[in-house]
Amino acid sequence: MATATRLVCILLLLLTALCCQSLAQRAPAVPDKCCFNFQMKRIKRDNIVDCYLTSPECPHQAVIFRVKSGKEICTQASKAWVKRYQQRFQVSSFSIPS
Prior knowledge:
This protein is of the alpha+beta class. The chain has a domain at 45-93: CATH 2.40.50.40. The chain is built from two helices and three strands. The chain has helices at 2-25, 80-93, and strands at 48-53, 62-67, 72-76. The longest helix is centred in the N-terminal third of the chain and has 24 residues, at 2-25. It is found in: Secreted. This is C-C motif chemokine. Its main location: secreted. Residues 1-24 form the signal peptide.
């Protein structure tokens, strides 16, 4: 009788573990980086080496600029200078290497 009870307990534990795993897989994705503080001054264009948008799941829409020193700087996506920089950077990054 004790063996049957142990078997039932093991099966219940396995079932619980499987249910928890499937629920965890359905959880919404957590964004890697979100911005909460923003650079207000314009960044020198020559210092920028890369840029990307934050995830739509972030509370604030932002563009992150990576500069030559490796630092990543959060900027407000709605700022005119940020939009200009982003467009210029995207155009130059799509050029075909010779």
